[in-house]
Amino acid sequence: MNTQAITLELHGAAPDVRIHPFLLDNSQEVDLERRRPLVLICPGGGYAFRSFREAEPIAVRLLSLGMSACVIDYAVAPARFPAALMQVLATIAYAREHAAAWHIDPDKIILMGFSAGGHLAASAGVFWPHPHYAAKLGLKPEQVQPNGLALCYPVITAGPRAHEDSIRNLLGEEIDILRQTVSLEKQVSSQTPPTFLFHTWDDVVVPVENTLLFAASLKRHGVSAAPYIYPKGVHGISLSNVEVFGPEGFRAIREDCAQWIGHFDAWRKGL
């Protein structure tokens, strides 16, 4: 397994970004030509930090399901929009360019984001067709296109049900100018990739309406979606197991919420 970190130099288009691939090797005993799906992981943290519990533990779990993964150390405040978006688009293009060396399928690159990382993943999902973003990286839109999205209790809207801290960290002084731009339920198009979503109904940090708004917009534009809403569960629930909460966090663990990763695994096999 390859886990060597890589720094992508973006030459002023955005800050350089460090990525952490978790790549499964092929075996002569099984299939030397195997190409696996790749999941690019954007941890949450309100665009203020990047949560560990939504990074390496997620990557390791995905490896156990036969996927390769890569955690993106995207820019957070005081960096502003679209710095992190550009970093994610550059990572998609880099992974696609290195598909053969990474033993991945270049047509099965999935963005997975948690909370504010979900907003980032969804941003790449809705903005990739806009040619000026790819052009800043010296690329074409098809090079930065994600093939699927997995949005886990995501920040989506910058409207009345917004997680206001995330939006302020993302936009800074331009919050009034760009609020509509980053209200992603308004940016969905028929070119938005198929999307898996999960949220908890009683999330008191990022309201479940964020997921519902995005799912409804996907429906209006004819985009395939698989939303899962669980009745209870804390925000930031991640894998909902002892690996991410530790032995003292057992009260936050919910067996029903822990099922989302299996639902995601089944969904991605249909892409």
Give the SSE layout.
Layout lengths: L5 E3 L8 E6 L13 E7 L13 H9 L3 E6 L9 H15 L1 H4 L1 E11 L1 H12 L3 H6 L11 E5 L11 H8 L3 H4 L16 E6 L8 H12 L4 E6 L11 H4 L14 H9 L3
Parallel strand pairs: 3-4, 3-5, 5-6, 6-7, 7-8
Antiparallel strand pairs: 1-2, 2-4
Give a verbal description of the structure.
With 271 residues, the protein is of the alpha/beta class. The chain has a single domain (6-268), classed as Rossmann fold. It is 31% helix and 18% strand. It is built from ten helices and eight strands. The chain has helices at 56-64, 83-97, 99-102, 116-127, 131-136, 164-171, 175-178, 209-220, 242-245, 260-268; strands at residues 6-8, 17-22, 36-42, 68-73, 104-114, 148-152, 195-200, 225-230. The protein has an eight-stranded mixed β-sheet with strand order 1-2-4-3-5-6-7-8, sandwiched between helices. Strand 1 (6-8) and strand 2 (17-22) form a beta hairpin. Helix 2 (83-97) crosses helix 4 (116-127). The radius of gyration is 17 Å and the shape is globular. The two termini are 25 Å apart. The model has no long low-confidence stretch (mean pLDDT 96).
By DSSP (H or I, 4+ residues per run), the number of helices equals 10
In the sheet with the most strands, the strands line up as 1-2-4-3-5-6-7-8
Major sheet attributes: 8 strands, mixed
CATH architecture, by name, is: 3-Layer(aba) Sandwich
Instruction: Assign a percent range to the helix content.
Output: 25-40%
* The CATH class: Alpha Beta
- Full CATH superfamily name: Alpha/Beta hydrolase fold, catalytic domain
Radius of gyration using CA atoms only: 17 Å
Distance between the termini: 25 Å
State the domain count: 1
Structural class, by secondary structure, is: alpha/beta
How would you describe the shape?
globular
Summarize the helix and strand pattern as letters: EEEHEHHEHHEHHEHEHH
Number of strands: 8
Strand content: 15-25%
CATH topology: Rossmann fold
What is the mean pLDDT? Answer: 96
Report low-confidence residues grouped into runs of 5 or more.
Answer: none
